[in-house]
Amino acid sequence: MIWRLLTEQEINIVYEQHMKRGFPPEELPPFPPAMELIASGEGWFFGIFDKAQDGGIEGAHEMNSDIDLENLAAYMQVLKLGVCSS
């Protein structure tokens, strides 16, 4: 398994193709605020892949063309402690 940060374009794809299907509407995290947390360094969005892709972890930030989420096994958003209030 390979873990890497997803690019903004990849996050958009995961949100549209997986999260909107996988979460009930009342539990779906709002998308623009999630991207703001990532941009501010308060959160991260990881993809977990079944096998290595070209470029591996070192090339993760360079992968903004020819997006290949074919081997995506899971995804997760991680937030710094204290960012979420419930």
Short description:
The chain has 2 helices and 3 strands.
Strand content: 15-25%
Sheet with most strands: strand arrangement: 1-2-3
Gross geometry:
globular
Instruction: Indicate the structural class.
Output: alpha+beta
* Mean pLDDT over all positions: 80
Helicity, in percent?
A: 25-40%
Oligomer: single chain
Number of helices: 2
Largest sheet: 3 strands, antiparallel
Describe this structure in words.
Helix content is 28%, strand content 22%. The longest helix has 15 residues, at 8-22. The protein has helices at 8-22, 31-39, and strands at 2-5, 43-49, 72-79. It has a three-stranded antiparallel beta sheet, with helices on one face. The protein has 86 residues and is of the alpha+beta class. It is globular, with a radius of gyration of 13 Å. It has two helices and three strands. Mean pLDDT is 80; it is low at 57-66. It has one domain.
